[in-house]
Each structure stands twice: as structure tokens, then as C-alpha cells.
Write a structure and sequence with these properties.
By secondary structure, the chain is α+β, with helices and mostly antiparallel strands. It has 15 helices and 14 strands. It has helices at 3-11, 51-67, 83-99, 121-129, 133-138, 145-162, 182-194, 206-218, 229-235, 239-253, 317-330, 334-337, 399-407, 415-424, 462-481; strands at residues 264-268, 273-278, 281-291, 300-309, 313-314, 340-343, 347-350, 361-365, 373-374, 388-390, 394-396, 428-441, 445-447, 453-455. The radius of gyration is 25 Å and the shape is globular.
């Protein structure tokens, strides 16, 4: 996937999303929880640097550790004379930039993506031999424009934080057209930090209304133009917290393969948006409903192999125990009225049909979390800007359109044949002639095509946790290197 193409992927994520109602607060990691990454034994001897190469390498490391979002502070000056240590520092940095800073133990179970194994030594040795260390460094980061946008955003927001960030806006009545006074002036000052088109003085006029709407779109909020509680909360997230949020999203880019499949489906879990790519171009986008906090939709990659038409719902034991059996006890006949039957005295299954929680379509892909994409009879949530409400699966706004697109080209599954099968009501599994890769990703910070940073809420708290883990690993590595 080229850097140019990835810009389109980020643009597709600008649909409305979950309101930014919570601050991104770093989660401290106690020193006892920090375990140094495993020592990698070189497969070939460490290359010997010339004096010029050692000086160049030390300068590159000092600059790039900050630029790539691997540390909040510059590393300690490196002793260029200690060549072996300098080389090992470079190799550690290369692994972190190319495949992520985390060790296997750092990954939560529902962070189902894992970076590929990467041994930087052969490439580095070749770069030293050909005196192309700078070119080797430049080729290490993920080759996506989405990553480049975050890197540029990181530099900008670090500068904002270093200059003191922005003061919190005071609570009070909603601000809208015609408002004036100190709170409006403070609002203008705050917006101007991220939006150069905002004037420093004036009341709440039409131009300020449009500026507020632009900000609300950047934060995934309903662009009403009125500054209410949700908008105030998003604007009051500290600049330093935004720095950590960007760092966390840069790390997730490193978990992706260097070449994403050209034909694929991507779900932004945090924004609750699905995008379909055909030949690396977005051809369909729709709103989704993803897992609510406590029932998180996992990050993962897999391959959709089937579309199940008129799927029954085999109810997970946890949902049956916590939600459905109590409803039957409270209102006898609930199961019968809603199409449920009891199997083997304990398991629940809801028959296919209009009442089924899976609707008329289910998109199957192998994974360790028992999640999938599916239709739903409950359509109201798609009109909401807060769409984290499922038990972990991904509900789709336009499942029929997706089914037709995935089955396109199969003569047995024309749009008419699909519709007839749906109407008949029988459960049928339609195998895809060409399985399609699917990625469930968690993007809460991304740059638009113009370079403007956009943020979403961190509903699962994954940004704060990940940023803290990156810092802990970086700190432990610096200690080990001394």
C-alpha cells in the first residue's frame, strides 16, 4: 500500500463518530511491571562504523526517536566511541519504528494484531557497507500516508504542548449565535490554536459558527455549531494528552503488514465506520455499530469467506445468562414471542427472520473472538453520533449492499438470486469465490488530506494504556543501554 493511497483510507474515516466526552489520560505503568524486551542475538557480526558513520548514526537516533513517537523526551547523548552500543541502539530503534516498541507480553488479548517478525541487522549491515545509513533510516517507518500524517501532527502538537498548550474553557451555558463576552473570546483563542482561520476578536458570528462546526467535525461530533458539554469536553483535552494519543495511533500503524491487500474491508472501531476497498480504492463506506465499553470489538485481521443469508443467532452463554433468561423469567413467553428456542435445556438460538438479532446477513471470518459483521433489525442507532452499543460484533448500516458487492461476479448469486433467497427465509451459506481480507482497527487520531489532525474519543482507554506501555518500554531500553 503506497503512502498516497492511504490518504484515501483516512478520508473515509471522517464520517461522524462517537462524541469525544472523555479526556485521554495517561495510565501509569509501575516500574515493577516493566520487563525489558528479549535480547536479540545477532545472526551476523555487528558492522564496524567509521567515525563519520558513528557521528551520523548518533544524530539520526537522537532526532528520530522523538519524531517517530517512541518517546516524549530526547534520549541521553550517545557516546559515539562506543560503536557496538551505538549499533545495538540503532537496531533496537529500527525494530521499534518498523514493527513497534511493544513486547509480546504487552499486548492485551483483544489487541489481536501482531507486527511481523523483523530482523534489522542484515539491512543495517548492508547500509553500512554501502554508506547508506540515512536511506536505511528513512525506509524503516510504515509506508503509509496515514502514518506520515500522524508524524507531522505529532511534531505540531508537541510544539503546542511545549508552548504551554491551551487553557481549559470554563463551563457555563451553551454558546451559540449572538453570544459575546469573555467565554466567547476564550473560545476564539482556543479554536485558533488548531484552526488558523479563526479571528482573535469578535462575538459569536457566522464565521465563528463555521469554525465551531469545523472543530466538531474534527472531533467526530454532531456539527451543530453550538458549543455544549460534548464540544467543551473535546476542546478541553490537554495538548499533551493529544500527543500521547497520536503516539498510540502511530504504534498501531506499525502492527500492520507493509503491503495491505488491495481488496479489503476496514472497520474503524472507534469511529464506527466501515470502508470497502476495491483495487486499493474506496468503493463503499457505511456507518457501523461497534462494541460498547466492556464488550469491546477486538482489533484483528482475517478473511471473509462466506455470506450467511437468513442466519440464525446462536446466543453466547454470557448474553443468554445476563440478559435473556432474566427477561423470560420476568415475562414468561418472551422467548416464544421473539423467536428463541432452548437447545439441550441450556443453549438459546434465535430463528432466522426479521426478529433475528443478526438480521438477514452475516459475514463470516475466522477469528479467536467469535465476532463477525452482520445486519440488524434495530436501525435507529445508525442515525446517532454515538454508535458503540454492540456486544462486540460489528452491525452494518447497509448489509445488503455489502453482500451484493462481495458476491458480485458469482453467476449463482446475482442481486435477484440474493433477494429471492432472503425472501424465501431459508438459511444459506454463500461461499465467496474470492475471499476478502478484513481489518478491524482502532483509529482515534488521523490526519485529513490537508494535514489537519482529527481526533475521536478513546472509548476503550486503549490509547492511554498503549502510550504508557510505549514510554515504559522506551525508558527500560534506555536504562538497559547505559
Amino acid at each position: 500500500m503506497t503512502r498516497t493511497i492511504a490518504t484515501v483510507a483516512m478520508a473515509a474515516m471522517l464520517l461522524p463518530a462517537m462524541p469525544a466526552t472523555a479526556q485521554v489520560v495517561p495510565v501509569p505503568v509501575p516500574p515493577s511491571a516493566v520487563v525489558a524486551p528479549p535480547v536479540v542475538v545477532p545472526t551476523i557480526p555487528l558492522p564496524q562504523l567509521t567515525d563519520a558513520q558513528a557521528t551520523q548514526l548518533a544524530a539520526l537516533l537522537s532526532r528520530d526517536t522523538l519524531a517517530q513517537g517512541l518517546s516524549l523526551a530526547a534520549p541521553q547523548p550517545m557516546d559515539a566511541a562506543a560503536r557496538d552500543r551505538l549499533v545495538r541502539d540503532a537496531l533496537d530503534h529500527a525494530r521499534a519504528v518498523h514493527a513497534g516498541r511493544l513486547a509480546e507480553a504487552d499486548f492485551q488479548r483483544d489487541w489481536g494484531l501482531r507486527p511481523p517478525t523483523f530482523d534489522p541487522l542484515p539491512g543495517f549491515a548492508d547500509a553500512v557497507r554501502r554508506d547508506r545509513i540515512a536511506a536505511w533510516f528513512a525506509a524503516l517507518p510504515p509506508p503509509y500516508s496515514g502514518y506520515d500524517g500522524l508524524k507531522a501532527g505529532l511534531e505540531r502538537y508537541r510544539s503546542i504542548a511545549a508552548a504551554g498548550g491551551w487553557p481549559a474553557l470554563a463551563a457555563g451555558p451553551d454558546l451559540g449565535m449572538g453570544a459575546s463576552g469573555a467565554r466567547v473570546l476564550a473560545l476564539r483563542k482556543r479554536l485558533a490554536v488548531e484552526d488558523t482561520d479563526v479571528a482573535a476578536t469578535g462575538g459569536f458570528d457566522t464565521k465563528l459558527l463555521e469554525s465551531v462546526r469545523r472543530a466538531q467535525r474534527r472531533y467526530g461530533l454532531n456539527p451543530t455549531g453550538t458549543v455544549s458539554t460534548q464540544t467543551l469536553a473535546a476542546l478541553n483535552v490537554p495538548a499533551q494528552a493529544r500527543v500521547r494519543q497520536i503516539m498510540a495511533n502511530m504504534e498501531r500503524w506499525r502492527w500492520l503488514p507493509q503491503d495491505l491487500p488491495r481488496d479489503r474491508i476496514q472497520v474503524n472501531i472507534a469511529a464506527a465506520v466501515l470502508t470497502v476497498f476495491d483495487g486499493d480504492q474506496p468503493v463503499m463506506s457505511m456507518r457501523a455499530v461497534t462494541g460498547r465499553p466492556g464488550d469491546e470489538t477486538p482489533m484483528l485481521s482475517s478473511t471473509i469467506h462466506s455470506v450467511v443469508i437468513n442466519p440464525p443467532w446462536n446466543v453466547p452463554t454470557s448474553i443468554a445468562t445476563k440478559e435473556l433468561w432474566p427477561k423470560e423469567k420476568k415475562s414468561p413467553g418472551y422467548f416464544r414471542r421473539n423467536g428463541f428456542r432452548v437447545i439441550d435445556g441450556t443453549r438459546l438460538q434465535q430463528k432466522a427472520g426479521d426478529q433475528s438479532a443478526l438480521g438477514r446477513y452475516k459475514f463470516d471470518f475466522d477469528n479467536a473472538f467469535s465476532v463477525y459483521l452482520h445486519d440488524t433489525p434495530s436501525r435507529a442507532k445508525f442515525a446517532s453520533f454515538s454508535r458503540l452499543a454492540s456486544h462486540g460484533c460489528v452491525r452494518l448500516e447497509k448489509p445488503a449492499d455489502l453482500a451484493q458487492l462481495l458476491l458480485k461476479g458469482d453467476p449463482a448469486w446475482t442481486p435477484e438470486a440474493i433477494a429471492a433467497t432472503v425472501d424465501k427465509g431459508d438459511t444459506v451459506r454463500a461461499r465467496l469465490v474470492k475471499p476478502v481480507s478484513v481489518y478491524l482497527l482502532y483509529w482515534t487520531a488521523f490526519a485529513s488530506g490537508s494535514g489537519q489532525m482529527n481526533f475521536r474519543d478513546d472509548p476503550y482507554g486503549w490509547d492511554a494504556t498503549l502510550a504508557a506501555k510505549i514510554e515504559a518500554r522506551s525508558a527500560s531500553q534506555m536504562v538497559a543501554a547505559r
